[in-house]
Amino acid sequence: MEFNFTGSARRERHINLGGTREASAAQLADQARKLRLERQAQKQRTSAATKIQATFRAHQRSLEFRRRWADELAKGTWDWNFGKDWEHRSRLLVFSWPSSTYSSLHANELAIWAQHLPSKNQLARNEALISLVVKMMLTLLIRFSTDLGSLGAIYIDTLLQLISSSNTVELQKHFAEKMISWDLFAALHEYMSSLPLKRSSEASVCLTLSLRPLAIFQGPTEAIAESEHDTDAPLRARALRGLVGRMFTIPTLFPRLLASSITEFVAQTPFEEVSKHILGLGSYVDVTTRDDALPSNPVHSPHLLANYLALNSQRVPHLTAKALTVYLEVLTLLQNILSVNNLVKLENEYKQKHIPSSENTMEVDSDDQDALQQRSDSSDHFEIESSFPAKPNLSLDSFDTTTSRYLRLLVSDANIHALLLQSTRFASQTRAAFCAYLVATLQAWPSSEGEHVLTTVLYGYDSAKRTPQAAHVPVVGAVVRELWRGYIRSSQLARRVGNASFAARNFETRKALTDISLADQWPMLIVLIQLYGRALLTMGDDEFFPTDRLQTNGKNPLTLDEVVTLSGLLRNLAFILYWQQDLLANDTQPAFVPGTVVPLATLRDSATRLLQQIHTRDARRKFTPANHWHMLSQEDVSSFIQSVVVEEREMTGAQDSEDLQTARTRHPSLSSRTLAFIGPRLNILHHIPFVVPFEVRVEIFRQFIRSDIERLHISRDLFAFTKRHRATVRRESIAEDGMAQLNGLGARLKEPVEIVFIDQFGQPEAGIDGGGVFKEFLTSLVRQVFDTDRGLWRANEHQELYPNPHSYARQPEQLEWYTFLGRILGKALYEGILVDVKLASFFLGKWLGQQSYLDDVASLQSLDADLYRGLIQLKNYPGDVENDFALNFTVTDEEFGVTHTTELIPNGADIPVTRDNRLSYIYHVSRYRLSRQIEPQCRAFLHGLSELIEPRWLRVLSREELRVLISGTEAPIDLQDLRAHTVYGGYHEKDMAVTYFWEALEKLDPDSRKAFLRFVTSSPNPPLLGFAELNPQFAIRHAGDDVSRLPTASTCVNLLKLPAYTSTQQCLEKLRYAIHSDAGFDLS
Q1: Which residues share a beta bridge with 586?
Q2: Three-state secondary-structure class, residue 163
Q3: What is the pLDDT of residues 465-510, one digit of tens each?
Q4: CATH code (residue 909)
Q5: Average pLDDT, stretch 1015-1032?
Q6: Does 589 lie in the same domain as 521?
Q7: What is residue 152's predicted lDDT score, i.e. its pLDDT?
């Protein structure tokens, strides 16, 4: 209540004379905080300045004392025999210079001290002081190894003296522990690397010093030290880590050592512990990606592998089973990590960067080998190849040629033989490790070196089980037989992958491909695939097929039943890797065979090659059960065909647009999932088509052609408004006129072609070509141009044709004929017209893209049987090949009486064929005869063929199946099938004349029946899927009642004009006369 009422109703104004408040409470608090922080910072600056000043004064004081001590050390006269003087000088030496200022100028003072070591008692009293001097020595060795010169040797001698056996055990352990902690092995590595590349006592003393800690810290130990500074590891493990990581990674280690030191090093190095330590370090590495969980892991150094080989390769004949296994495991690990392919590339880089001189170029001389052999009775000599092609891979430190020379011991004959023989002695314990080593070698080295290794193992020497007289006779395929029967056939891997149950085989195979528990079994299967595939390359069919299915013939290491079982395993393996392509890669990384660095894609390719080789033999001479190769159920067939045709359309569309992605956007109905589903099917058809039934593949081939016709909008309707190519051909010049008028069409030959024949009087023959006249033209043309008298073709002893290797056939005009003939046979396949021409098997293989011939020697049999038999004799000859055969690496050809000599390899005329290189000679001869000699002719022919038939369409077939597609099956003619698919004109199927005709056909022998089929269809062979596919169907027309007339035929429409004969015998006689004299050929 207001008590001071003044009589006014207006509120009284209040005026604050203190002014308005400019800062809020928050602002005031912020200002206080800033002031507090500023006071705190000022306090810290003051404290820091005090510390800096104190530190600077201390540093200045320290420098003053150090200078005074250094002057005293330099000017003083010392009595080294007086203990106090020695101790005082030692302190001056240690404290005169900080370690950061060490330079080569201080080395002399340290060397003077090192030359006056006191007695054991004084060492014991001053071990802490001496340890500091030791640290100084090691620091100088690491930093200035290249500048120390002879002073470095004094340091090494001093360090060795400190931990020599002349001192007490306690002193040895104390100094050894300090040296290991202060990088003894790093110092030795730097110093030895700085020495000139020649043998020296200094390097030998370094090696002796590196072994002393192992003698001081007794073992053995199973522990693994991650580094020399790993205090959690035992000192012996740290010493092993230093030896492996530092000494074994010195480039050209052994050529630097005296021979006596090498012998000492070999004797004193704990082989098993070193090997296990390397394996322990390798456990930190993922060999498939080379990711390493351990920094500075020495297993990545090629010098480690080279020095390990140099140290231990001569031990092999004396290794126990356990030691051999460990040795093989180390070599496998290091090759997997390094990928030796890259080492040659790095060697070449090294040579480019370094100018060769007597000082930096070294050879492995006999002293190394002699010293390494002092602990081995083996007289094996290592033959080292000079060069091999490089493949890009890792980026490792460059290395010298001596390291490369040691690395090539891995693929040398002597090393492979020694490992094979020793592994044979302990086969049950070491075969898995030996196979893993072979797999790593094949994967790491270039294919040329891999082939050499395979040949060495395949034709290895099993002297442990043979008489001295037979010690040098090759045992062909003994390892193949042993691997299959002793390890693979009954293994869990074979049981799972070779599962015969159709429902379970894909599931079990997929599981086996990712099961790490099978890691020790996969390498043996991989080696078997490689070895047996290599054996089949030079194995003829007469060697492959034994007289008894259950026995071998001495050339084929497996029986036929074993081959069937092996092929079933490979079939399942290859099929699942094509069918389920997601197995081949995981995210962005390829997937690998368990326990190896072999990509699954590489395994698939290897299995596919061997599978193709076995199937090729089976196609020539059946030995597998019915349906052995098939992998599709009846339910899958229809969807398989549809999917393959869709994928083919996609590929064709992509080729037309030159952009697969664009092609797929034009087909939005095909999702990526659908494309992933159908893609593997086309891969299966291209690589292992025989797993799909032949009838299905023929239907797929025809579907490809139908799709192509639809894509090109080609109509075969006679009355359709479609462009038709017209050719006028004289009957007496069918080949020349056909070539002149049709060859220029190229791929347009797919379109309808209308033929008009000109008779002998120059008049066009009556009639309209509805397809039959063209068929007659095609048949007549093939008969003329495939005649060997024209000079384009040559026939083997089975009258199978292949391009003439004569130089005449390589002339441009003749090559154009080959192109035309390729188009003509392509047109016959495109139209489904059978032609009467039989081509050699090896030539058909070229149609399928088999340029690397799966079985060269067996293919050679289809070209020149005499040459084939001669090469087989050479391969199996037990005597003196060089003198008895007197061959060299050349071939001779004679043309028009003139002999030409061709070298198979560079300087082949100067290289004799010997026992060791005869397989190479056989291979080169086969390649020359099958490929090089007729390459231009084949290239021209296949160019013309591919214009009408896509090469990938043909790859769904084998050679023998392709022959059937071209000229029909050679199976006996099924008269019941022919009769069931016959149409009649003017006759009824129950007329007597028709009955007499079929009875007469029944009485014809098989050859006469084929002659009859040629008489009416122009081809002696029936269609591959029966007469239901003959187009047009076989027809019989009434030709009147005059029984004196012969039956005639119109081959263009598969028509037989049959008079109404009155008896079976009469019909039989007329048929025989007509078909064997061609008297019935008539187009009326």
Answers
A1: 589
A2: coil
A3: 444 444 444 466 789 999 999 999 999 999 998 876 666 677 888 8
A4: 3.30.2160.10
A5: 81
A6: yes
A7: 87
Mean pLDDT value across residues 202-206: 89
Q: Which long-range contacts (CB under 8 A, 24 or more apart) does 423-428 make?
A: 423/324, 423/328, 424/462, 424/464, 424/465, 425/321, 425/464, 426/320, 426/321, 426/324, 427/482, 427/486
CB atoms within 10 A of CB 764: 10
Same domain, 541 and 606: yes
What is the SS3 assignment for 988? Answer: coil
Q: What are 21's two structure tokens? A: 């408040």
d(CA 1080, CA 1016): 9
Q: Which two tokens stand for residue 501?
A: 């149950």
For residue 295, cis peptide bond before it (omega within 30 degrees of 0): no
Q: Helices marked H in 658-733 — which ranges?
A: 660-665, 672-687, 694-712
User: Under a CB-based contact definition with an 8 Å cutoff, are residues 337 and 444 in contact?
Assistant: no
User: Over the stretch 643-692, which tens digit does the pLDDT of each residue have?
Assistant: 888 877 777 665 555 444 444 444 444 444 444 444 688 888 888 999 98
What residue has token string 């063209």?
A: 774
Cα–Cα distance between 197 and 1048 in angstroms, integer? 94
Give the position of tokens 């069937």: 564
Beta-carbon count within 10 A of 986 CB: 14
**Do residues 690 and 729 both lie within one domain?**
no
What is the structure's pLDDT at 464?
39
Whether the CB-CB separation of 957 and 685 falls below 8 Å is answered with: no
pLDDT tens-digit series, residues 748-757:
999 888 888 8
**Residue 668 and residue 698 in one domain:** yes
Please indicate, yes or no, if residue 113 is contained in any of the structural domains.
no
According to the model, what pLDDT value does residue 938 have? 92
Write out the two tokens for 843: 């030539």
Range of the domain at 650: 634-706
Angle in degrees, CA 259, 263, 265, rounded to 5: 110
CA distance 198 to 266: 19
Look up the CATH number of the domain holding residue 1026: 3.30.2410.10
The chain-wide mean pLDDT, for the chain, equals 81
Residue 1000 lies inside a defined structural domain of this protein: yes
Rounded Cα gap, residues 83 and 89, in angstroms: 10
Q: Are residues 642 and 613 part of one domain?
A: no
Provide the whole-model pTM: 0.78
- What one-letter code names the amino acid at 718? L
Beta-carbon-side half-sphere exposure of residue 458 (alpha carbons within 13 Å): 24
Residue 93 lies in a domain: no
Q: For residue 854, which amino acid is it?
A: L
Amino acid at 492: Q
For 691-739, write each residue's pLDDT tens digit.
988 888 888 898 889 888 888 888 766 555 566 788 888 988 888 999 9
> Is the residue at 77 inside a domain?
no
Beta bridge partners of 1081: 1049
User: Which sign does the torsion angle of CA 13, 14, 17, 21 carry?
Assistant: negative
829 and 740 in one domain? yes
Q: Nearest CA to 574 among 546, 605, 550?
A: 605
pLDDT of residue 78: 54
Question: How far is residue 701's CA from residue 691's CA, in Å, rounded to a whole number?
Answer: 15
* Cross-strand pairs, 1036: 984, 1056
Cα separation, 830 vs 750, whole angstroms: 7
580 in Cβ contact with 601 (< 8 Å): no
Q: What percent of the chain has pLDDT over 70?
A: 81
- Residue scoring higher pLDDT (612 or 968): 612
Structural domain count, the chain: 5
3-state secondary structure of 670: coil
**Backbone angle region of 1081, left / alpha / beta, with phi > 0 → left and psi within -120 to 50 → alpha:** beta
867 and 828 in a single domain? The answer is no
Residue 484 has what DSSP assignment? I
The residue among 866, 870, 821 whose CA lies nearest residue 847 is 821
Instruction: Give the phi and the psi of residue 417 in degrees, each rounded to 5.
Output: -60, -45
Average pLDDT, stretch 593-611?
Answer: 92
Q: Are residues 795 and 863 in the same domain?
A: no
Per-residue model confidence (pLDDT) at position 221:
85
1052 is catalytic: yes
Catalytic residue among 206, 435, 1052, 1067: 1052
